[in-house]
Write a structure and sequence with these properties.
About 40% of the residues lie in helices and about 20% in strands. It is an alpha/beta fold.
């Protein structure tokens, strides 16, 4: 070796170099294996957690499902018990609103309801039982647990008096149903019609006018005559017996106002005729 030259390192042996490469490769492979192992463990934990969560959700669904079924069964049992239980059987009938129809007769007609549970009461059956009473216009049913059934009836309201052959003067409602016997003290108007009330065209014409009149005018009418639908007239109560030619049922409000003004300007003792059949051009005849 020449003087002053630096000494050279001996060259690495090929065998030692290969060993180092193998060690590096093994370390890298070990790192990847450890990483994969951690990932596998993490995935396993997540899968087990998911499984536990799914199981809990499934269990909750089953619990709620059974609870809903149980509640429905219990509700149906309670309904059936209420419908068929003798604990709510009818023992007493109470009738309200009757005046023209006997309470005793109504109770006798409904005696078939005694012993029946309140929830089983059928309005159609009651209507069928009360159909024999034409004076009952409508009714309502009220359950009063544990054992009382209340029947509230609405009777027909008379609107006029009509002479009936073989019977005398009788009250009639707007449908033509005879409500009861009338006397000379009645404040309702007496209808002079032809035919049977309810079927007679003249009765229907008179009723149509009565229903169109203001309520305060009805007590002042003594008699009403209906020759046709367009020819209705009536007389007012009082000494003079003043006559009113009403015509047809149309323009009832205007006719009433015009008639009120004419009556106000006339003495009660004047025997006159008020013609309001054409309310725009009323006429007073002496």
């Amino acid at each position: 070796m020449p003087a002053g030259a630096a000494p050279q390192k001996p060259a690495a042996k090929p065998t030692e170099k290969k060993s180092a490469d193998v060690r590096k490769l093994l370390r890298a492979e070990g790192s990847r294996t450890a990483s994969l192992t951690k990932q596998a463990k993490r995935a396993g934990r997540q899968a087990r957690a998911q499984l536990r969560g799914d199981s809990a959700v499934s269990l909750n669904k089953r619990v709620w499902g059974w609870a809903a079924v149980s509640s429905f069964v219990l509700l149906m049992a309670l309904i059936l018990a209420a419908v068929y239980s003798p604990l709510l059987a009818i023992e007493r009938l109470s009738v309200r609103g009757e005046k023209l129809v006997s309470e005793k007769e109504i109770k006798a007609a409904l005696k078939g309801q005694i012993g029946k549970p309140l929830p089983q009461v059928n309005d159609d059956e009651i209507a069928k039982s009360l159909k024999r009473f034409p004076l009952i216009e409508s009714f309502s049913v009220i359950s009063a647990p544990p054992h009382t059934l209340i029947i509230k009836v609405t009777e027909r309201t008379p609107i006029a008096v009509v002479w009936v052959d073989g019977y005398g003067y009788a009250f009639f409602d707007p449908a033509g149903v005879r409500v009861g016997r009338a006397d000379n003290r009645s404040k309702l108007p007496t209808l002079e019609i032809s035919g049977t009330p309810g079927k007679s065209p003249s009765f229907k014409a008179a009723i149509e006018v009565l229903l169109a009149l203001p309520a305060e005018l009805l007590p002042r009418i003594s008699t009403m005559t209906a020759k046709s639908k367009d020819d209705v007239s009536f007389r007012l109560r009082g000494y003079a017996g003043q006559k009113v030619i009403w015509g047809d049922p149309s323009q009832a409000v205007l006719k009433s106002k015009v008639l009120a003004a004419l009556i106000e300007n006339q003495s009660k003792n004047d025997r006159v005729t008020y013609d309001v059949s054409s309310p725009q051009t009323p006429v007073v005849r002496y």
